[in-house]
Amino acid sequence: MPLKATAPTSPIDWDDVRVFGAVARAASLARGARDAGVDRSTASRRIAGLERALGERLFLRTRDGLRLSPAGDRLFEHAERMDTAARGLERSASAGDGDVRGLVRIATTEALAVMLVRRGLLELGTTHPGLELELLGANRVVNLARGEADLALRVTKVEEPSLHVRKVARLPFVVVAGEAYVRRRGHPRTERELAGHDVLLHSGELATLPETRWLASRPGVRVVLRSNSMIALLAAAANGAGIAVIAGQSAERELGLVRLFELPHIPPRPLYLVMHPDGAARAAVRVVADHVAEIVARPFVTSDAARP
pTM of this prediction? Predict the structure, then answer.
């Protein structure tokens, strides 16, 4: 039975709104409760309390899960603004007096996460023992405004005007293989020489990348592995399974990869360092951001061709 719409008769509890926003974003009571840090029954009770206070039904149950009602859709916009403001208050309160300490969360892709660790990200702990780093490596783009991370290293251009964005590197594309593969199968030095070779390709959301489409379309190649995990493809290449195309950040000497040839006709991939203004106000976030920018700006070194 629909609730009778009335003006709120008691103050709205912020926790009710916070839980409502988490459930709305997840479109699932169970997932939303988990994101909000409460159990399912608590989330259900808080949403019911908010509906009673507002006199409006906020969710509709459908075959595909929860869907916002017209009233819920209107409230969600306000809930998002309240959530952003609350997180901004928390970040400002934790900004401190300029000390480089506390938790700083860095979001990026899994391949870039590996590169940051290999190139000395954790060296900051020696200089700043009060600093704690959390590295979030995934292809999903985090929401900095909602506090999902303090800074992000992204390969896609950021259009949000409220964020601080700077381009920190341009990564050329190179064709690589493991040293064992080159010794066993030879060293192709041009596109034409790829015919007859085994290749490793991205799949899933990465299948539309220009480097993936290029390698897949080379005449005469044999696909031996597809994966949506860049780490899995790098491991396969390093183990001698086949040839891959990667951006410059992954072709490192310690991985045992050999640069076969470059792909100048595919534009280099830019890297963007992104921060929310509230995060940039913290000394710890600024120090970590500068260190990340210095890491990715270093020249990328690959091994020479393996000797027969």
Answer: 0.61
pLDDT tens-place string over residues 122-137? 999 888 999 999 999 8
Of the candidates 102, 163, 164, 94, the one whose C-alpha atom is nearest the C-alpha of residue 128 is: 102
CA-based diameter of the chain, in Å?
A: 82
- Nearest alpha carbon to residue 181 among 260, 254, 245: 260
Bridge partners, 177 (sequence order): 243, 258
Asked whether residue 87 carries a pLDDT value surpassing 50, the answer given is: yes
Mean pLDDT of 151-164: 82
pLDDT in tens, 210-253: 999 999 999 999 999 999 888 899 899 999 999 999 886 555 55
Count of positions (residues) in the chain? 308
3-state secondary structure 86-136: HHHHHHHHCCCCCCCCEEEEEEECHHHHHHHHHCCHHHHHHHCCCEEEEEE
| 28 contact partners, CB below 8 Å, separation of at least 6 | 65, 66
Q: Which residue has the tokens 């007859």?
A: 196
